[in-house]
Amino acid sequence: MRTVRVTRYVTPLREGGSLPAIVEADDDGMYVLKFRGAGQGARALIAELVSGELARALGLPVPEIVLVDLDPELARTEPDPEISALIRASAGLNLALDYLPGSVMFDPLAEKPAADLASRIVWFDALVTNVDRTARNTNMLMWHRGLWLIDHGATLYFHHTPGWESGPDRARDPFPLIKQHVLLHKATRLDEVDATLAASLTADTITGVVDLIPGAWLSDDASELEAARYRAAYRRYLLDRLTSPRLFVEEAVRAR
Fold first, then answer.
1. Would the pLDDT of 83 be above 60?
2. CB 209: neighbour CB atoms within 10 A?
């Protein structure tokens, strides 16, 4: 995964609860920056990274995800005190998605994705327990006539429970909130895509994705041993979740 450095803060995206921003980086690219110092902190960045890269491994369209080095000195030229404080609180390593200029929010009334794509998206969102792909907030964009998945910071919500890494296993949660998914009514091929998608997420693939998580996001004491313990817990959760029978698929089919 590439790491870039922010060179210019362009504008905040105030429709996001955590106040993400469009920034320019030292590779001349434009990115949507997610701040470590906002809202749910590093856990939201972990969810964004892990779920986004799992979606990519499944062949789903996700903008490139990069790690972002943020210099707190950028706060000195920012007149908005809320944004200035957010930049200072997020000094160091953050996360961003490639900015898709000219993209528009997915409109469920106007756009009609194919049943196969809708089924694969619903399957993926049920796997990662995505509570944030509803008609009210689809977190999908249309860009160059294609559908793109964004904003996965609310996935994997089990890891907000203190002690989750050594507590009761949540992997078999059927995820009943899938009934609110904006594409559920179009997902008529869940049973057909299930085996193929599950087979795509091999143990090596999951390990590769989890190993992308920076240690500083996992352990407050910067201990690599502690970070390895959290990585092992994420791997265990995802592998257990993929074990057949997959209750999240059964629940999605039932809800539909």
1. yes
2. 22
Can you tell me the distance from the alpha carbon of 44 to that of 49, in angstroms, rounded to the nearest whole number? Answer: 9
**Residue 184 CB: number of other CB atoms within 10 A?**
23
SS3 115: helix
Instruction: Specify the residue for token string 């062949």.
Output: 59
Q: What is the CA angle 190-117-112, rounded to 5?
A: 115
Residue 59 main-chain phi, psi, to 5 deg: 80, 15
Is pLDDT of 170 > 60? Answer: yes
Which amino acid does the sequence have at 98? Answer: D
pLDDT of residue 17: 62
Look at residue 105 and give its three-state secondary structure: strand
Pick the residue with more confidence: 222 or 85? Answer: 85
DSSP class of residue 119? H
Count the Cβ atoms, other than its own, within 10 Å of residue 212.
14
- Reported as a single tens digit per residue, the pLDDT across 201-214 is 999 999 999 999 99
Per-residue model confidence (pLDDT) at position 133 = 97
SS3 134: strand
Number of CB atoms found within 10 A of residue 169's CB: 13
